[in-house]
Each structure stands twice: as structure tokens, then as C-alpha cells.
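Narrative of activities, Objective 1.

The group set out to show that a structural description can be obtained from nothing but a protein's sequence at a throughput compatible with the screening campaign. Below is one input-output pair from the validation batch, recorded exactly as produced.
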Amino acid sequence: MKTKFIATFVPGDIVDDVFALAEKTMLQKKDGNPYLNIVLADRSGRIKGVVWDNVQAIASAAGAGDFVRVSGNVSEYRGTPQLVVKSMAALSADDVNAEDFLPATELDVDQLFERVLKLTHSFTTPWLNRLFEAFWQDEAFVAAFKTAPAAKRMHHAYLGGLLVHCLSMAVLADKVAAHYNGLDRDLLIAGAILHDVGKLREFDYTAAIDYSDEGRLLSHIVIGLEMIDQKLQHIPDVPRDQANLLKHMIVSHHGEPAFGALEPPKTVEAVVLHYIDDLDSKINAVREFMAKEDPSQSWTSYHRILGRHFYMGAGHAPRNED
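Output recorded for this entry:
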């Protein structure tokens, strides 16, 4: 059983505890001898580790995705805690409490899903009604949709994160469709719910959130198109042009090819979906970042991905989920 979580580690701590081995990379020192970089994870976060001694034996003890017992001491490297590993041994999944390793939403996923159902039941577009009926009658799909994370690290990176993200986007889509004349409300909400559906298979989230082989090879966009096509094949009289508009929203929701889009958004609904996705993911990422910072400080530390400090104000304690 775990006794201490990564978020509490400070330089000088002596560690002998259980973790998920998220990453493992063998490297070479200038003198030609090997050393090992690892990333350990639990539900509170991640920490980088380094193995200088007994490298080959430790490296062969476990692989990425395994649960491991690790001993070592916490040092500081470039301003952040780093674990200098002395020993590592693999553990059976039966010997650990999975809830210690994967962060999960504190919201009620069944209630969130009911809100998604209510939105899709409001559709007046027959083929979209049939499409979502096919998804919702698939019990394995629904279970995965309630459980999957939305990302490995950047935003909504926790169990239930995909559902939280998609519902938030669908609610925003409904509001935007009511504000701008001429938007296809049903299509926009459908795109919000299904835009990341491929992440159900893009990620493996047994011990730690990481990419599956299928995810690395194909990406959630390609997987999502395949999942939608599989359902559409069994639905009669689907207007091909309308189905293509939905698929276009999937392939373009990243906005630009440089950010993973197969095509840039070429319909008004696709443009709206892209900006809603960007807004919701960025807000969640900033809130998650702020929630881990010292609430007594006015400014956060430097966010490396977004490239800035964020102002919190004295005593600010942001909510990280809606």
C-alpha cells in the first residue's frame, strides 16, 4: 500500500513506496556507461527519476506500465524534485490499490452522462438520433466513455476527464448555437460529444495514463472516424453529405495541421467546434495548474507549455472542474 504521494515529495525525502512506472529510457553518459531515466506516477502527479548505479538490473526489473516498488531519495534538479533511484522491483496489479495511481474526477459520472443523454435526446435530426442511439445502446462504449481520460497530461488528464470535457463543450456549443443565427445546433453538439471519441482507444489507463499502441500508430482522429463509420454502416438512409460534415468536424477540430488537424476547419460549425475545444482545454489546463500552486502566492510558477506565469491573486483557490 502507498504511504506517501508524489505531490508531497520535497528534496531530502527518503522514499520506499509503490508507483506506476510511466516511462523508462536508457541513455548513455559521456564516459559511455549507461544510466536510466524513468517517470513515476501516482494519482497526485508525476516525478522524474534517475538511476546511476546497478542500471542494467534495475532496467530489466520492470517495463513501462508496470506497478513498481521503488526506493531512493528525493533531490532537486533544475528547480524541481527528482528521485535518485536505488532499487526498483515489479509488483502484480493484484497487490496494489488502483485508486492510488490514477486521478479521477470527483464529479458523479452517471449524472454527467445523463446530461449528455438529455442533449442528444433534444435533437430533431433523425439520422443523428439514430447514430447516438447506436452509441448509447453499446454498453461497452458507454462504460469506456464514462471512464476514459481526455489527455495524458495537458488537460482533463484523469479518469472521467473525457466525459467532463465533452459535456462542457456540448453545453458551450448549445449556447453558441443559440447566439449565432444559421448554425446547425444538432450537428455542432454532436461534434462536441464525438470529436475526441477515438480517445477511448487512443489511451491505455491501467496503471498510468499513456498512449496505446493503436493510439500511437493511428491517433484518436483516425480511430474516431473508424468508430463513427462502424455505427453509420448499420443506420439506413444517412445523408452522405451530412455525415461528411460531422466527420469533417472530427478531422479539423485541432484547427491547423501543425497541431494535428488533418484538415483546417472549412465550415462554420467546424470553426466553432475548434475554438470551443481550445477554450475548454486551455481553461481546464490553467485551472489544474493553479490548483497545484501555492495559494498564498499571487503568481504561479512558469507554465512551460503555455509559456507564462498566471496571476492568481492573494489566497486564490481556483476550482478545477465545473
